[in-house]
Amino acid sequence: MTDIEQLLQQIRNFRDARDWQQFHNSKDLAVALSIEASELLELFLWKGNEEADPQKLKEELADVLMYALLLTDKHGLDIKQIIEDKIKRNNEKYPVDKAKGTAKKYNEL
Amino acid sequence: MTDIEQLLQQIRNFRDARDWQQFHNSKDLAVALSIEASELLELFLWKGNEEADPQKLKEELADVLMYALLLTDKHGLDIKQIIEDKIKRNNEKYPVDKAKGTAKKYNEL
Amino acid sequence: MTDIEQLLQQIRNFRDARDWQQFHNSKDLAVALSIEASELLELFLWKGNEEADPQKLKEELADVLMYALLLTDKHGLDIKQIIEDKIKRNNEKYPVDKAKGTAKKYNEL
Amino acid sequence: MTDIEQLLQQIRNFRDARDWQQFHNSKDLAVALSIEASELLELFLWKGNEEADPQKLKEELADVLMYALLLTDKHGLDIKQIIEDKIKRNNEKYPVDKAKGTAKKYNEL
Q: Looking at the keywords, is Hydrolase present (chains A, B, C, D) (predicted)?
């Protein structure tokens, strides 16, 4: 994944120029990711479904992605691989004939 | 980004086979992303910094990434672009000479 | 619960003086509560278990409690009642002989 | 606050019967609180503003409140006090003449 690897390099460089790897244990990375997901969600608070500020949406999505990438990188995970594996699992949890057109969780199908 | 586009295709196919796009407004996608980030965080609850179950870590990270990708896709965003833009902004918020070796937030530097 | 009712009155007055009840649908209250819980969590980011700023801890806990109280009030719930009911349920999910001294989730006991 | 103190006693008893205080450092309590807030939010995922299951709403709200109470208790905080203090601060951040009828955040008023 040449583009992802390029991005990871830029993210690592930014982190290492500031000597921040010392803080990047997995638990705090997961906390940071959760906080960024919350900041993204805040763009919709008290608003309609499509009313988030578009510029801020880009920035908060970027923050979420960066922490997700830092975690995958720390654990030597390949993004393509883990997503494809999860889609396979989801195919079993959410068979098309049962899940089509409904938002029910898998344990309610 | 050929690999990302390939992944997005798989994610879209999974969604469309189940006719789920009707539920995927931006606010609910942000809510879903926040929930997945929380499920990832739960792998560390009451535990040490590196004690999350590795298999579950892969699965929850995949879930976070999938919702993040669905949101970028919905808004026609290029992942490479938005991350590079954010790194540029962060370079200004966290200048190396002030931010090096400290975990302080930008407004405390 | 006289003290809780007093607090609720103050919270309602603050809201109504600003004509904010129009925004307080249950979903957005739940989103707000989640965001405040995240802001509380952020006080511990990159830090040790007991290193949160004590003044900010009070403020963020107050924010979490206020949104929780607004939700219970909106649904006519009695805090004492719902907590006692949940403790009863937890007694079954986490029997002392199985749960004592372990942080395992109920489905792993 | 006699009723709150009674509730706290029940919560402490439940915790101590299981010897769980050893896990209850402040950071993990904040993580747990954030996770419960997320489980509450999940009741609204893909749904309308008032479509959460009422029974589950009670249970998740109870979980949120219990962790909030455990944190206030651990830090010797009085719920009435911290909420009243926050309302005072909010009175300044959100003056009625500026904040009335708008959902804008204080830094956008």
A: yes
